[in-house]
Specification:
The complex is a heterodimer of chains A (642) and B (257). Chain A has 642 residues and is α/β, with parallel strands linked by helices. Chain A is 39% helix and 24% strand. By secondary structure, chain B is α/β, with parallel strands linked by helices. Chain B folds into 2 domains: 1-83 and 180-257, P-loop containing nucleotide triphosphate hydrolases (Rossmann fold, 3-Layer(aba) Sandwich); 93-173, no CATH class. In chain B, 38% of the residues lie in helices and 25% in strands. The chains are: A alpha/beta (642), B alpha/beta (257).
């Protein structure tokens, strides 16, 4: 038994071990509440998990049952999930902005028997569809606000569940311990639904081994310490938080911090100054554009210092990239620049102590990576997926901006004949729930088929795009629209971009979403009056601004992928209108479908196109908005830009 | 209606400014735990009535009875101590202080420690400050203004300032809350939020509320009873549905029909 015990490692076993090792002497979590950071020791966390677990047991939870959790990042989410895992169950995370019909899908598809819903808003969603999901026994909330007078028989307060659990624990003091010991690393610990850029979401089943693998792999390249502060900020409905926060939290263990509210994250981040931060590529992008805009808005003296320091730092980076020695004078100057400019800047954005910043989700442009390295943030590309955990990462001192790093040791990566990246490691999932065909397709030949197009290059892995997204142009050459989109997004004035091209299109075109805040500021500075997003987006001056950005990008692109025409769209892409996923990835097909008129107007190089679009108002009424969208055509000498 | 259900009585209240009769013989009762709406055209005397209750104006005739005391004789700075707090039509906050400090300042009336202990901030002073902060943080949470806790009030948009002002009244832990047009100048979303906060306060803390508001939709939605004033006279009293049909009310609002 002893040998078996050591081999099979589960999250609840690690949690129990932490409680035994550290008890009340070490802090496991901090949650900001009442304006102060409240601490939970390992013993306290373990107690809560035990009570929730016993509570669930007393209400009939059985091994293999699933719980669904709808909420923000709170200690309660962690307790509920760990409690279910103690009992041999699994947790299903759901994003808080899901609508009731989506919640119904997750509850039904996952066969959840208990729902943990943060507050009134989430409880109401579940109650709306409660009749249609008879399998759900209880809806448990942890923020009682507004729920004081609910008397629905299945709705209950987490505190009451814990009270039930405490009683049950007295009657069966050894039971939970035994159940935890029965856990095996190949037990399913969590379902992560893939965001579903195509079709219905699929529930990837992840085992304890899968979840624990990620942090173990990252450990190869970065030394994690038990004193490291981690901010739980990404939704645990996403696999990343499952791996870093929920698994890493007990494995390393990190001190996990929970922000007061989603709105206070920026401030809370500054309070904690985390040692490790994971942002999606999107967030790094918006952070970069915030830094750029704020710096241009600053006082002349500060702008001057920032410019000088940036130039210095970029020179130093360039020298390093070329493998040259950085001379002593430059090194000293850089240290001075770091002290005067970059350190305060890093503090401002809450990354004063950041040892490593991971980025993933989408490719990030080399220019932006350089920007962060220049201000002293060690940002690294991390490549992975829900189904295959982490695959590759940049090593310190071996950072090539165009790659997604070097595969981890023990991670077998191949590129198939048709250019698809295949992965075999301890993180590869066991299958999609209730979908054997998709499982079979994804795991054929013993490798996980990522669906990503890429190539190996001197140990590094280069990622192009999704295999399905690589597009054949009319000239016969293949191109990646995403490659261009990412570069467009590096401008602070562009929030979203979708690039079109293909065999049936004469040339490459683009639909741009301007960044309302930044373009608005720009308009104010240039004394340009405007009213709404729609109005501003069609202003001649704004279209000129965007044309300048596109021209500059065209100058570095190969001839055949240059953007010949673009529109500044009259509205922002919106997840509520199915134009992007909840993680804000644009959905190509729906957008292509919806804006067919605009696309053909660009192909035919018309001057403008009339657009009619439906809008749903807050009170449910549907109206139509008519507007004229201008097509901006760029001449062939796009190379003039620089 | 039994005697103990009544929280506050305004009895035959009259006040005039020179020859102008701002309120004449106004009489009504506020029941415990209710939200009472006061509506009326501009210049009907609504704010004047709140000013009388909160001690800002001294009525010439009549009584305001609260917990067996006649408030007409009580100084305005004492009234919050008795359990009546108010907000103002035009926000009256310390614009140079943060949200947190504005709320803490409103608790000055509960300060119970001496200068000596305040100077060194130990023992009683420290304990009490922690207690005050806890109560203030409770209200911050209730009104969902955690993210502007440290913002200077002067830098906040109007809708949020109104919310901070409500917060300032609430940290005094009133039994009766007087709200003077809490939703004036707000957009629909802000109004919805404010309405929810008012209902939350009423349900959670059992606070009796007198609400002056111009937005009829809001008044009809969240109040149990409504009083209508016109040129200083009470012309109607009743539940929302009846008030909408009342001939005198229609006339006051729409002119002669």
């Amino acid at each position: 038994m002893g040998a078996m015990e050591r081999e099979t490692e589960t999250i609840p076993k690690l949690l129990r071990k932490r409680a035994q090792e550290h008890g009340r002497r070490k802090i496991a979590m901090r949650k900001k509440d009442y304006g102060i950071w409240n601490e939970y020791s390992w013993q306290e966390v373990y107690d809560h998990v035990r009570w929730v677990a016993y509570g669930l047991l007393s209400l009939g939870f059985e091994k293999g049952d699933k719980i669904t959790i709808l909420g923000d990042n709170d200690p309660e989410w962690y307790w509920a999930e760990w409690a279910a895992q103690c009992l041999g169950g699994a947790a299903v995370g759901v994003y808080i902005d899901c609508v009731p019909s989506e919640v119904k899908f997750y509850l039904e598809h996952s066969d959840s028997t208990f729902v943990f819903a943060r507050d009134q808003e989430q409880v109401d969603k579940v109650l709306e569809i409660h009749e249609q999901v008879p399998g759900v026994k209880r809806v448990i909330y942890w923020d009682p606000r507004g729920l004081w007078f609910y008397d629905h028989p299945s709705v209950m307060d987490l505190k009451d569940l814990e009270a039930l659990g405490r009683k049950h624990a007295q009657d069966h003091p050894e039971l939970l311990d035994d159940l935890i010991s029965l856990g095996r690393e190949e037990d399913i610990a969590a379902f992560c639904y893939t965001s579903g850029t195509t079709g219905l979401p699929k529930g990837a089943m992840l085992t304890h081994r899968n979840l624990l693998y990620a942090v173990k792999a990252l450990w190869q390249y970065n030394a994690f310490l038990t004193t490291d502060n981690y901010l739980s900020y990404i939704s645990p409905a996403w696999v990343t938080e499952q791996m870093l926060g929920l698994a890493g939290g007990v494995l390393v263990p990190f001190v996990v911090h929970f922000p007061e509210k989603p709105e206070t994250v920026q401030k809370d981040l500054r309070d904690i100054a985390p040692d490790i931060i994971f942002y999606g590529a999107r967030l790094w992008e918006s952070l970069a554009s915030t830094i750029q805009v704020k710096m241009t808005d600053s006082t002349p003296l500060k702008i001057f210092f920032y410019r000088v320091a940036s130039a210095l730092s970029h020179n130093r980076l360039k020298a390093r990239e070329k493998g040259q020695r950085v001379n002593v004078a430059l090194r000293l100057l850089h240290q001075l620049a770091d002290f005067v400019v970059f350190r305060p800047l890093r503090d401002r954005i809450g990354l004063a102590r950041c040892k490593v910043g991971y980025t993933a989700g989408a490719a990030i442009s080399p220019d932006m990576m350089r920007l962060f390295h220049a201000i002293g943030i060690n940002i690294k590309n991390l490549y992975g997926s829900t189904e295959a955990s982490v695959v590759s990462l940049h090593k310190d001192g071996d950072i090539r901006y165009e790659t997604v790093g070097v595969p981890f040791e023990g991670c077998d990566v191949r590129v198939s004949e048709d250019g698809e990246i295949l992965v075999r490691n301890d993180g590869v999932f066991v299958g999609y729930y209730k979908n054997p065909e998709a499982t079979e397709r994804a795991l054929r030949g013993g490798y996980y088929h990522t669906g990503d197009a890429g190539v190996r290059d001197k140990g590094h892995l280069i990622y192009f795009d999704r295999v399905d997204e690589m597009i054949q142009l009319s000239g016969g050459k293949k191109f990646s629209p995403q490659f261009i989109e990412i570069r467009l997004l590096f401008s602070p004035y562009i929030k979203d971009a979708m690039v079109f091209g293909g065999e049936d299109r004469p040339f490459v075109t683009a639909i741009l979403n301007m960044d309302f805040d930044n373009v608005g500021k720009w308009a104010e500075k240039n004394k340009l009056a405007y009213t709404t997003y729609m109005d501003l987006s069609q202003k001649k001056e704004v279209r000129g601004l965007l044309a300048g950005i596109v021209k500059e990008l065209n100058s570095v692109l190969p001839e055949y992928t240059r953007i010949k025409a673009f529109v500044s769209l009259h509205k922002e892409f919106d997840p509520d209108e199915a134009e992007m996923t909840r993680t804000r990835k644009l959905k190509r097909k729906p957008i292509e479908e919806r804006y067919r008129d605009i696309l053909s107007a660009m192909d035919e190089q018309k001057d403008s196109v009339r657009v009619e679009s439906k809008v749903v108002y807050r009170d449910g009424k549907v109206g139509t908005v008519k507007t004229q969208v201008f097509v901006n055509t760029l001449s062939d000498n796009g190379g003039r830009g620089r | 209606m039994s005697e103990d259900e009544i929280h506050l009585i305004v009895d035959q209240l009259s006040i005039s400014f020179g020859g102008l009769m701002a309120l004449s013989n106004v009489h009504f009762e506020l029941r415990k735990g209710e939200i009472l709406g006061i509506i009326g055209p501009n210049g009907a005397g609504k704010t004047c009535l709140l000013n009388c209750i909160s001690g800002f104006y001294r009525p010439q005739w009549g009584e305001i009875l609260f917990k067996g005391r006649n408030l007409v004789k009580v100084a305005p700075h004492v009234i919050p101590n008795l359990g009546i707090s108010r907000t103002f039509q035009n926000v009256e906050l310390y614009t140079g202080l943060s949200t947190l400090d504005n709320l803490l300042a409103a608790r000055h009336m509960f300060i119970d420690y001496g200068v000596g202990s305040a100077l060194f901030h130990f023992g009683r002073a420290k304990r009490e400050e922690i207690k005050h902060r806890r109560i203030v943080e409770d209200i911050i949470k209730l009104l969902e203004i955690e993210d502007i806790r440290d913002h200077t009030v002067g830098s906040l948009p109007y809708g949020l300032r109104k919310r901070v002002e409500l917060g300032r009244a609430l940290v005094q832990e009133p039994e009766v809350l007087l709200l003077d047009e809490p939703m004036a100048g707000m957009n629909v979303e802000e109004k919805e939020d404010m309405a929810r906060f008012i209902i939350d306060v009423n349900e959670l803390k059992g606070t009796s509320i007198i609400l002056i508001e111009h937005d009829m939709g809001v008044v009809m939605d969240i109040t149990e009873r409504i009083i209508v004033l016109d040129f200083g006279n009470k012309i109607a009293e009743g539940i929302a549905g009846d008030i909408q049909k009342d001939a005198k009310v229609i006339k006051a609002y729409l002119g002669k029909t």
